[in-house]
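Reading is simple: each integer encodes one residue's backbone shape. The lines below illustrate:
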Amino acid sequence: MTKRLRSGYTTGACAAAAAKAAALFLLRGETGGTVEIPFPDGTRHGFMVHSCQYDGEGVVAAIIKDAGDDPDVTNGAEIRARVSSHAGQLVPDLQVAAGNIMLTGGAGVGRVTKPGLAVQVGEPAINPVPRQMIVQAVQEVEAAKRLLVEISVVNGELLAEKTLNKRLGIRGGLSILGTTGIVRPVSAAAWTATISASMSVAREAGLVDVVLSTGRTSERGAQSQLDLPEEAYAMMGDYLEFSLQEAAQQGFRRVHLAGMWAKITKAALRVPQTHVRNGALEMVDAAHLLASLGADGPLLTKIKNSNTAREMSEHLRNAGRQDIIKAVCVKAREYAEDVSGLKVSVYLVDSSAHVVARA
């Protein structure tokens, strides 16, 4: 029986919980071990308060992020909120979030430096829904008093190096994210949102070419062939069909598609999502494809007896059948062009990030 994966909470939800905990201590002297906040869908969720203390002028509270079973780099991160009174004066880099509550980003929270994201250039990378959640949580404690809320993340700048923030133009730390407050394990919504954001940044930069890669190795291969700025590169993971359609919707003229053998073969087989659990690369289907492209005799026998797609590619290379490898790339290109309606170039990349075939 497959174990059900456990959901967790977004950085935005944790920031809102920390902000409410700090406000409760500052304004009411309450230092309970848990705090409950509203979510966008109308539900309420409780959080364990990791720490809460005065720092001289305000109160700093912290929540430890629990991302559930999602492989999130921010799982276990300490999300802090500092709440203090303010006289209402506007200070650089502060945003009036709602009413008398002002919001800013502190250490470990990035700042937006490129257009195309949901947050304006120059502002802390605290997305719209987290801003709303933070304000609502604090307003449950006090709606009239002028308050300043500063969100920070311990070691946020180091954690950000493991994300795509730099490419998106978010410098100096993490983004405070979330549209529902909940992290779903291996969330499709998170992936597709990142793909869309990457493309938006590229379009705002005036680019008409976008590079879709299935991973960092294939991306490095494409970079060795193309003279394009970093904004042109969007890591699509397994979301092939979505990414192709998104590229068309955002108005790109050409797509450069980079991937390793198994993913390119799945594209040639017209599999819209290339993860193993979403249309496994059946060896029979792949063998039929390669046979239709010219594999025969002892080579076809070896291909049919292969255990993996990689083994198939090794047999093709050992037989010197670069023509078949190229033909697979052509089939992948045809599928990508059919889905997107755009001109597409395909780059087949090996495990050393070398481009071994193009179409």
Observations:
- The mean pLDDT is 89.
- The longest helix spans residues 322-340.
- DSSP finds twelve helices and 19 strands in the chain.
